Amino acid sequence: MGSRLKPGQAVLDLGCGPRDQAAVFTHLGCKYVGLDYENPAADILADAHAIPFRSQTFDVVFSYAVLQHLHNPQVAIAEVDRVLKPGGMYCGTVSQGQQFIASYFHMTPWGVLSLMNDTGLVPQQLWHSYDTLRALAKTGRYPRVVKSLLGVLDVINAKCLFSCSAKMAENGPNESGGWTSYTGGGHCFLAIKAE
Question: In terms of pTM, does the model score above 0.85?
Fold first, then answer.
């Protein structure tokens, strides 16, 4: 995404939390606005279901692990589509494999794509951030021994292509094939608003 950004572009960080991405976008010369529902560090406190900006205001909307927390992600995606300029980018992540987070939906790759079906957003790329077992081994709130065992299972799972027929069927042109999209702890996406 960094190579597509141009200095002066307006970026909305939807669900910005403590504005931890502001420095990155500012460094790239973008005009950053952080919107969050409850974090007082945000530039604007507002709801993603009703983004308080005019249509076609932003060149980029970024959301890091936000969609799974929303009551109605379809409404929020429609709002993202509305505030993006034609040709604008929507980029972000969703969580799938973290079981113990405050979420209404766990977004599978197909779930992310289906959210964009009725909008002007055209998916460009969808990739996993890391596997569920690895995610639980690193971020789960388990005793150290359980986290270690999850880490061992992750290594075994990654090395044993034969351990699941779906892995073998999905093994494609790259090393991991499509199976990682089914087991990913999180997914990243990039979509462009139609011109």
Answer: no
